[in-house]
Amino acid sequence: MTRHIFPALMLWAMTAVATPALADPRLVMVEQPGCVYCARWDAEIAPIYPKTAEGRFAPLLRADLRADPPDGIIYDRPVSFTPTFVLIDDGHELARIEGYPGDNFFWSLLEQMLRDHTGFEPAPS
């Protein structure tokens, strides 16, 4: 009897382990097809985002509005608008920007969000 229990316990233990949370800060962009503001963000920000201090500190991860959050991520509340930018650390939401207010506002809101909720320090100007 015990020789049957051990394999069953091992199988249970392997399936019961949750997906590991993302440990480093990430910026999740929640989007949906046909979102004009998402397309505007893609045109104005997406090409340069990974080259910036903010993009290196909090790499972008894209998520679909109609899907569950990416594996290992928990939002504080449902996402209703696109684009919504959710700052995640250790799998949990720290803050969010709802909507895309244009490139100047986006960068200042993102920098403030990163400074308020993480150890981000922008490079001196």
Structure description:
The protein is an alpha+beta fold and 125 residues long. The protein is built from 4 helices and 4 strands. The protein has a 4-stranded mixed sheet, with helices on one face.
Annotation keywords:
125 residues, alpha+beta, Glutaredoxin, 4-stranded mixed beta sheet, 4 helices, 4 strands, 19% strand
- Note the gap between the termini: 70 Å
Total number of domains: 1
Quickly name the level 1 CATH class: Alpha Beta
Structural class of the helices, strands and pairings?
Answer: alpha+beta
Radius of gyration over all CA atoms, rounded: 18 Å
Number of helices: 4
Second CATH tier, the architecture: 3-Layer(aba) Sandwich
Uncertain segments are: 4-21
Topology overview:
Layout: H1 2-16, E1 26-31, H2 36-44, H3 53-57, E2 60-64, E3 84-89, E4 92-98, H4 103-117
Parallel strand pairs: 1-2
Antiparallel strand pairs: 1-3, 3-4
What would a concise description of this structure say?
With 125 residues, the protein is an alpha+beta fold. The chain is 35% helix and 19% strand.
